[in-house]
Amino acid sequence: MKIRKAFGPTIAVSLLALSLAACSNPAVDAPSAGSTDSKLPASCSTEKPTIGVALPNTINPYYVAMQDSFKKHGQELGFDVKVAIANDSDSTQLSQVDSFIQQKVCAVALNAVNSGPGAASVKALNAAGIPVFTVNVIISPDDLKTQNASFVQYVGADQVAGGKQMGEQVLKDLGADAKIVAGIIGNPDQIPTNQRDQGFKDALSKNSNASTVQTVNGKIDPSVSLQVTGDLLQGNPGINVLFADAGPHAVGALQAVAQQGKADKVKVYAFCAADQKLNSTYAACAAQEPAKYAQIVLDNMKKHLAGESVDKEVLEPLKVFVDGQTPGQGEVG
């Protein structure tokens, strides 16, 4: 059963009111969650409003599924959806956001390349009075505060819960008091992956015989993940569990385990690699649903543009797959 966790916009609106009282700034003058009287861009009143979608890449199957969903569902809702792919460059993405501004789009869905630099894109859209909805990658609250920037809504997976689910699965598979030495293939530049790692470690902390030796940076890249996981295993021969906190990390980690002949000694738990069957080595994974997140963003964007209130944050639960199962199309990490 899927349970959506959402937090209402009351606090965000109250803080916005205080900011407006203090000064007039494009970042806080922008439309916000729950607002019904904010002035929208003129293009929003056209027969088919143009929506900008900014994505990091289309190498990761996750973003392919998200892009397809934005285009398909956007058309169903009567939007003209324009997608920009940043090829994992923060500067390119900011330039693409500036292009959306020049095109006078009605609103933007932003999946930032990185959590910190993404705040600059939000700030630019605020200054132009264009509503911005963030998805998947959480924009750094500290950077938003520094730039006095705000977004209408964030939509994504419940990242902490997903990491916790994987940690709990480890304890279920190996034993609540088993000797566990875990390594993590992560990405410290991203808030979501850090949240997943923390959830995983919190779950393992219930076992006094479990420890985490190191977190290496897979950079959301299978090739990089293969290399750093190989180094991690060689430097820590006692590792019997790997947590790969993104689908590309899982691909690289599984390859490294196979290359070193440790398929019977090391179990991999992960956020799901696309279309890859679980087995005795690839023991469990948590799947996000990027196509669904795109649909939620667009549905709530349409509500917001119609003057309806939307929640500041929508966190979706993750599906868990175990040995013998295969994630479905679009169910990825």
Characterization of the model:
By secondary structure, the chain is of the alpha/beta class. It folds into two domains: 5-157 and 289-316, Response regulator (Rossmann fold, 3-Layer(aba) Sandwich); 159-287, 3-Layer(aba) Sandwich (Rossmann fold). The protein is 41% helix and 20% strand. The protein contains eleven helices and 13 strands. The chain has helices at residues 10-22, 26-29, 61-76, 90-102, 118-127, 141-147, 159-174, 191-204, 222-235, 247-259, 290-305; strands at residues 5-7, 50-55, 80-85, 107-110, 132-135, 153-157, 180-186, 210-217, 241-244, 267-271, 282-287, 313-316, 319-322. A seven-stranded mixed sheet has the order 1-12-6-5-4-2-3, sandwiched between helices. Strands 8-7-9-10-11-13 form a six-stranded mixed sheet. Helix 5 links the parallel strand 4 (107-110) and strand 5 (132-135). The longest helix has 16 residues, at 61-76.
Strand order of the biggest β-sheet: 1-12-6-5-4-2-3
Biggest beta sheet attributes: 7 strands, mixed
- Inertia-based shape: elongated
Number of separate helices: 11
Helix/strand/pairing category: alpha/beta
What percent of residues adopt helix (DSSP H or I)?
40-55%
Any idea what the CATH architecture of the largest domain is? Answer: 3-Layer(aba) Sandwich
**Would you tell me the overall average pLDDT?**
90
Please trace the helix and strand order, writing H or E for each element: EHHEHEHEHEHEHEHEHEHEEHEE
Computed CA radius of gyration, to the nearest angstrom: 21 Å
Which residues sit in consecutive blocks of at least 5 with pLDDT less than 50? 1-37
**Mind telling me the CATH class of the largest domain?**
Alpha Beta
Q: DSSP strand (E) fraction?
A: 15-25%
- CATH superfamily caption of the largest domain: Response regulator
| Number of β-strand runs | 13
- CATH fold-level name of the largest domain: Rossmann fold
Count of separate structural domains: 2
What is the terminal separation in angstroms?
A: 19 Å
